[in-house]
Write a structure and sequence with these properties.
Length: 384
């Protein structure tokens, strides 16, 4: 994260220099070169750098970056241009960074074109208004997705295998889950708003399996409405799918007990985030985000919840999303120990708990998706 901070510091200096002098000025060129060198250092470690503005926070690969003077200025620069999302690929070239700097410096008149280049993708994202997503590339091989009607059988098979692997102390493989998530993302790309995609939600069938699917779909709806796309969107879906994997370690009679749980039984259930994260850590191909999310999905925005966290722990953005999806789905579906709660009542509860249990911006985003059929961004592929 230090390299990212250094890159942003140099980028902000280059933008400031560029708004004072011409882009060809020696000083500006030198600052841009420094920014480019730092960017290359970041991209030595990862395929691409993904930055997103959420409220007043800058999120890098779904993790908030701690504030500094430069970060605040960078967030302001992006917000003033209506930019909510920037993705820079490893092959980025110097002139592409120069034109990003020109855009951020407001050069080229008030109507300065904000357009993506081959390796710098710019998304105009707004959580509170309709958004546009300009990313054109596809997440990992959508051709390998299933047709929607094929998903339930395939998915059931994947979860049965997962359960068998856990019971037999074996590691499962990831492609099954990836294929299911790809199918939902492809279905999402065909509808015009995340609200419509909610029709993919399932009624209760087998709780853990249906719930995992629903949390995946709700995560995808939230992330899509915020303009997230590509590999990050896929990982957020996978994280939703696997968030409760630790429940497969909890004896079935406790999970389906109709009456009150004893303290000991409640303690067993409360272990599922840690057990799930431990398990996923060793499964090849599982994104780190899914491990983090399995661990954090019962933590609350105000620092309560479980497992207990160290002072200063920053909960991942995807975990915040999953907490909302999780709560919504758990309440709206019928469980053995109580009836389903009406959707409007659940929404009211989410609104009430924004800022305590839930990330307030994400909670607002979620409620908009639920109630406004036109909420969120234009989904990739929906224009074509
Ligand atoms: Fe859970
Ligand atoms: Fe859950």
């Amino acid at each position: 994260m230090n390299h990212v901070r250094n890159f942003i510091r140099h980028l902000v200096s280059a933008v400031s220099g560029s708004s004072l002098y011409s882009p060809e000025h020696l000083q500006v060129v030198r600052l841009t070169q420094d920014a480019f060198a730092n960017l290359q250092r970041v991209l030595e470690e990862k395929e691409d750098l993904e930055l997103m503005v959420l409220d007043d926070e800058l999120i890098c690969d779904t993790v908030p970056i701690e504030g500094s003077m430069y970060l605040d200025r960078f967030i302001r620069m992006l917000s003033e241009k209506g930019i909510g999302h920037v993705r820079i690929g490893r092959q980025v070239e110097f002139p592409e960074l120069q034109s990003l700097i020109r855009v951020l410096a407001g050069q080229g008149g008030s109507g300065a074109e904000i357009s993506s280049s081959e390796h710098i993708r710019i998304g105009k994202v707004e959580i509170h208004a309709s958004s546009t997503d300009e990313y054109g590339d596809a997440p990992n091989d959508p051709a390998d997705a299933l047709e929607l009607w094929e998903v339930p059988d395939y998915e059931r098979e994947v979860f049965v295998k997962l359960r068998e692997c856990i019971q037999g102390n074996r590691k499962p493989s990831m492609p099954g889950i990836n294929r299911v998530v790809r199918s939902f993302i492809r279905a999402f790309s065909r509808v015009s708003s995340p609200h419509r995609a909610l029709s993919l939600l399932r009624a209760l069938d087998e709780y853990t399996f249906t719930h995992s699917t629903n949390v995946c779909i709700l995560n995808l709806a939230q992330a899509t409405a915020m303009g997230v796309d590509g590999p990050s969107l896929h990982e957020i879906g996978v994280a939703g799918m696997l968030h409760d994997i630790g429940k497969l370690f909890v004896p079935e009679d406790i999970l389906s007990k109709p009456g009150q749980l004893s303290d000991a039984e409640r303690d067993i259930i409360k272990r599922h985030p840690v057990q799930g994260a431990h398990y996923l850590l060793d499964v090849p191909g599982v994104p780190k985000l899914a491990v983090v999310c399995a661990y954090e999905h019962h933590m609350k925005f105000d620092g309560t919840g479980y497992p207990a966290r160290r002072e200063g722990w920053r909960q991942n953005l995807c975990s915040h999303m999953t907490t909302i999806s999780d709560c919504f789905d758990a309440l709206r579906t019928t469980r053995v120990y109580r009836g389903a709660v009406d959707g409007a009542v659940v929404a009211e509860m989410i609104a009430e708990k924004a800022g305590t249990d839930f990330h307030p911006v994400l909670a607002r985003n979620f409620l908009r998706i639920l109630f406004d059929p036109h909420a969120g961004g234009t989904l990739r592929g929906s224009e074509s």
